[in-house]
Protein 1
Amino acid sequence: MPEMLKQLQDHFAQALISSGEQPELHDLIQDSHFAADQLLQIYRNNFVLSLTEALEATFPVLKEMVGEEFFAQLAKAFIRQIPLEHASIATFGEQLPEFMSDLEQLTEMRYLVDLARFEWLYSWHINRMPQADIFPYESLAELTEQDYENLAFQLNPDMSLFQSQWAIIELFQRIKQWQSKSCCGDESDPLSGFDLSIAQSGWIKTVGLAEVDIQQADTDNFVFLNHCLQQQIFAQLDNENAEQNLQQGIASGLITGFQLLEVSSS
């Protein structure tokens, strides 16, 4: 019986993302006012609609940029080709940027992939609580001079770094702000004076319940933060602004810990 139930569940799950008849399910569907194919289509439509609405809630800026019709087709293709692996839909959409990167329709609009990537990070951070501890100043003060040669600083676990060859951070912020005002009748152009071609780096950090902080970073600061993210020894960072970036990073809560790494003698 458990094996038969599993087969039934597998057939039904496949039917939700596939068009056409599903004869292996017809005999198991009780007679009603609707034929078996019609009932499956009702389930199929509701399934796709529900997941589309979930994607719309996660990627409202992307939807604004591509338009409602294109987004609906994008969502439908994604739902049919990328299986829903978890009962919770909280993680559904994580693979959308990668899925978009293979679409021929977006060949001339590759920036949309990075926009989806950043918007997923925003969704992930806005739906969690901060986890970081206070920086351990006392423990740092106990280190010896030799320890400092093996010292690596740790990035705040509540933040994610982001880098793009386009001005994705500013694009996201402009559209997001415009969407919050458009319900009040704001008809201004959110992209007036905007230059997409400017590369941007930065970070997004959870700071409270449903609250995030988004900041752009200059090249030196981003290199420093990425150095910490890669768990590399601080003394090996060849950057004249490293000390200043470290002090600012600790003071602003971007750096929340440290560790001592073993260095090969070879």
Note: The beta strands are 151-155, 159-164, 200-208, 211-216, 255-260.
Protein 2
Amino acid sequence: MKFNRLLIPVIALLLVAGGFLTVAAKPNPSNGMPAVAMAAQPRPSYNIPAGEIVDSPNASAMVETPRKAVPAAPALTDAVQPGASVSGFDGSSTEGWQGVNQSNIAWVAREDRLQQSVPDLPSEQTAMFVSKDSNFADGSVETYFYATAGSPLGIVLRGSATEYYRVTFHMNVNTNNVSKAYIDRVSVDANGVEKKVNLGSADISKFQGYSLETWTLARAAIAGNRITVSINGTEIMSATDSTGGLSQGWAGIWTQSDNGTQFDNIRIQRTAVR
């Protein structure tokens, strides 16, 4: 027992001295003491498999994907009003049609569809594609449309440089219950400013708005002062212009000048002028 008591202070002294030497061996810039060489540490090993280099699954995440292909539009039915004068756009030529725009765009037949050529930045201005024949009075306009931008679009009837009827369809937005389709009488002043009078709208239960990237069939028919509108063969609204109405003019389709909608198989059926 005496031997152990004597060893304890000696062992403690050796431990303290060893700690002091360890601290003193570290480099100290203040006294110019050089660093003590450390023993080489083992490096981690890497296993590189043989074979070709494989790209990361996310390597192309920032690469722009090609534009989604647009399928061919369905054909219109053969139903034609008896005695009607029929004209149309089938995707091959714009002859007999004209653009009526508030911006610098052109309508072109490309990939068998009616599309916009927009040399400037897209805008929210009105762009119409209508018949050069300005004798449309009673009759109907049918068209398939394919929307990619969610812009308002639709059909125009009995148009001139100063007035026309406009049917408007909006995209399906399920966060609200406001109407997604309207019938307006639009007047345009000398400065190109529009003023519209609403004639009617579609109840949300009958039309929830159009869907993107799908062909939708729209039809607007006018007889006297009454306009009737249908989507995919189902009537969604009608309205009467109690002011006496516009008598005749051109007819066609419209959307915003943003290259966000394509049209195909446009058909105008015009009955005799009253």
Note: Residues 2-24 form the longest helix (23 residues).
Protein 3
Amino acid sequence: MADPEPRRARGDLAQQILDVLRTAGRALTPAQVLDELGGDLAYTTVMTVMARPHDKGVLARQRTGRACTYTPWQDPARVTARSRHRLLNGEPDRAGALARFIDDLPTEDEQVLRELLAQITHDDAEGPDRGVS
């Protein structure tokens, strides 16, 4: 007996669908996404998985005839940031959560964070009216 196709990790299919939509650069129906994904997925599975990011504000949905088309609503970095904000807003010890987050960052990410914070501080110091005569 042949081994069945390995199960996807939770969220893998949603990520693959988002990747297909971003790569397409245009609105796609679930059937079009299914064609791009290939494999033996059911149409209803793809449709259900596409509905979840829509409900979270990640995908825009528009009725097109009898079907709906989907497009990414925001860039991936904004979606990630928004989900982290939601998690942080539910945390009673925000300072502790942020400290733990920073402590767990790889060295390269910590350096990127330092550079971003320095840039923000520099931009704030210059102020909105700097350089205007």
Note: The helical segments are 12-24, 30-37, 43-55, 76-89, 94-103, 107-126.
